[in-house]
Amino acid sequence: MSGWDMSLRTNPARASSTDCHTSANRAMTHRPSHRSILTATALTFAGIAAFTIPLAAQSVEEGKESALAHAAALDGLVAEMSMELWDFSEIALEEHQSSAYLAQLLEREGFTVETGVAGMPTAFVASWGSGRPILGVLAEYDALPNIGNAVEPRRTGRDDGHIHGQGCGHNLFGAASVASAIAIKRMMDEHGTTGTVRLYGTPAEETVVGKVYMARDGLFDDLDASIVWHPGQRTAVSNTIAQALNNFEVSFRGQAAHGAADPWNGRSALDAVELMNHGVNMMREHIEPSARVHYVIPNAGEAPNVVPEYARAWYYVRDTTRAAVEENYGWILDIAAGAAQMTRTEHEVFLITGVHTYTLIRPLQEAMQANLERVGPPQFSEEDQRFARELQAFLEVEQSGLRDTIDALPEKPAPAGGGSSDVAEVSYITPTVEFSVTTAAEHVPWHSWATSASHGTPGAVKGAQVAAKALALMGAELILDADLLQRAREAHAAMTGGVPYRSPIPEGQAVPLPNRGSGG
């Protein structure tokens, strides 16, 4: 029995904080706190370090078998981490408990951990080993605001009153990624393998911030490759380039005045916002069909009888190439400047974040497909499927349950979807491969209370356990297979055209931490 298995005994004292779970989840909710885990496993980690004997360099297959075995031994840890992070459910750039918990686990395993990187208190980098190749494993853990739910197949709040929820499954994401990094490290330690494995704790994915600022600050520059997964409604290797994005806000400042008594003394910031939005809506007729422009008005004045002194528009601009985003962004900035001139107001632009399209690397996609098929899809129980079907019934969608198959890898990339990802920045810098594993029922709205409920279930954890094993296999292969790594480098150079990465974010701009701008 592994050290993690020995630490995962039931703890009645812990159960009181997890009453929100259903009876289907009781075996998982009676778990020790992360503090007790760290204490209980300290001797185990020390023992691993003390009794490891370097062996002869292993073959690729031997390394993969070893990594897979180590990942399988960590199934209990994946379950524990998944539920701990589900309990925390901290939103972007406020993931203090989540990041500290994962960083401490890795530190106990022997990783060197640097916290607060790239100006974000909840970002960290955990490294183990030395020399090349250097493999990056990406981990996310942020939740979404105001979609918290009990682990029930209907809309109901958590017993502890927590309002945020893991509607994107980042509790599972962080858990599986950390477990895979540990498994890869143990494989390398067991065989005396040269190389470095790094776990990147990347906050604020939901606001497309974390990896963008880490990339700008050069934290991925020396990687030879990176691996990543994401919870989803199907098990498949990612095969879409996603969309490039600029996420920015434009603030206007004018002069307050009485709306009836002396409006001539006022200069309306709201007029400027409305003129800007009107101009952008006229612009839509003349941009490519692939472009997407959407906005909200977070600030528009306080009362009708006061000329608004301050108003703010928040914009997203997307397209299928970074160049197209930059072109449309520049056009919108011209419109904003014109609106300020027309209303005799002043304006300021703040680029919160921006990303490239995703750089797909075919050799890594094919290798990832083989590793995913080697692990196999999650084996869901009838109880898992019953929860999924009850949730679908409540939402009045097709009651097909959880997908338990692996999609084939198409011959060509799929067209860009509607979303954007900060993983794209890492993929531009270094060869990267991503995949998804089923963690929630089909047809259920993503980023919703329904997926928050789903991602606290035993069925979702089974998806994370599959992901940890597939990541461990892929990581071992990249560490040991020099030919695959070389082919990945060549494909990456061809895809980027050898053009160095340039961050969309201005050098020196501070991260939009909470209470500053709308990106927090």
Summarize the SSE layout with pairings.
Elements: H1 3-7, H2 12-15, H3 26-29, H4 34-51, H5 60-73, H6 75-88, H7 96-109, E1 112-115, E2 124-130, E3 134-139, H8 170-191, E4 195-201, H9 210-216, E5 225-232, E6 236-237, E7 244-253, H10 269-283, E8 292-299, E9 310-319, H11 322-343, E10 346-355, H12 362-375, H13 382-395, H14 423-429, E11 432-438, H15 449-454, H16 458-480, H17 482-496
Parallel strand pairs: 3-4, 3-5, 5-11
Antiparallel strand pairs: 1-2, 2-4, 6-11, 7-9, 7-10, 8-9
Helix pairs in contact: 4-7, 5-8, 5-16, 6-8, 6-16, 8-16, 10-11, 12-16
Written account of the structure:
This protein is an alpha/beta fold. It is 42% helix and 15% strand. It is built from 17 helices and eleven strands. The chain has helices at residues 3-7, 12-15, 26-29, 34-51, 60-73, 75-88, 96-109, 170-191, 210-216, 269-283, 322-343, 362-375, 382-395, 423-429, 449-454, 458-480, 482-496, and strands at 112-115, 124-130, 134-139, 195-201, 225-232, 236-237, 244-253, 292-299, 310-319, 346-355, 432-438. A seven-stranded mixed β-sheet has the order 1-2-4-3-5-11-6, sandwiched between helices. It has a four-stranded antiparallel β-sheet with strand order 8-9-7-10, with helices on one face. The longest helix has 23 residues, at 458-480.
